[in-house]
Amino acid sequence: MKPRLFSTFRYLQHENPLGLPRTGTIPRMQRGLPERRSIKDVKKVIAVSSAKGGVGKSTIAVNLALAFARRGLRSGILDTDIFGPSIPTLLNLSGEPRLSENNQLIPLSNYGVKSMSMGYLVGDAAPVVWRGLMVMKALQQLLHEVDWGGLDVLVLDLPPGTGDTQLTITQQIVLDGAVIVSTPQDIALKDAVKGINMFKTIKTPIVGMVQNMSLFTCPHCHNSTHIFGSHSGVTHACEKHGIDFLGDIPLHASICDDADRGKPTVVAEPESDRAKAFMGIAEAVGAKINLFDR
Predict the structure, then answer these.
(1) What are the Cα distances from residue 160, in Å, to 81, 82, 249?
(2) Concatenated DSSP letters for 129-169?
(3) pLDDT tens digit string along 39-61?
């Protein structure tokens, strides 16, 4: 029996997800892994990841970007969550971005931080019902067709998980480091460890781990309680995997309220202990990637 020959001449055509002109700047996938390259006009790029949803990763990412801006740096944040973007709400921004003379998306800004998100390009209640190829094309355009206008640091807010989006970013972009976010509870920590192992596998430097919602202090009796578990789980994971513990963010109603009204803690309550915790973590991250070297 003769072997059958299969034709591979057919291919899928997809529309341009963001409606941008084709400038030829998006790298094409070659055989094997694509070559990593820097994001134009950006000096340092930090990825904030959790691998687990609901641990406050986006809130930490936006407060880090704002903390860098308070430090006098040109700071930006890129929301890489195509299906559930949070940055427009966190920065109280809306509206479709304009295009530059070079057909690049112009970021929206607030509180001294530039930002880009799929949330600016679709309605608040509009679902993004796309298959994988469409999502990857949209992500590549967000990575390579935004006119940042010169940044000292860009924070990437990664979606939960360790799938296509994370691989696309880590295989195509030069990352200066990754920050892992977890809550103290074991169910979140187990996924955080998966994120650690993912970044190690793809040889992306891990800056360290942040523990969110670590301690709740009652505003009435002032007693403190570890609602989601003790501190030792996260510190033990850091020791076991040889990464630094960057600090704690407390469980406090104001952090959630600030985020919901679009004025994150670093700008809403700059002198609070909560804002100082974010600033301390930003200092630790910046020192590890030589961000403050002039």
Answers:
(1) 8, 11, 19
(2) ---HHHHHHHHHHHHHSB----EEEEEEEPPSSSSHHHHHH
(3) 999 999 999 998 777 788 999 99
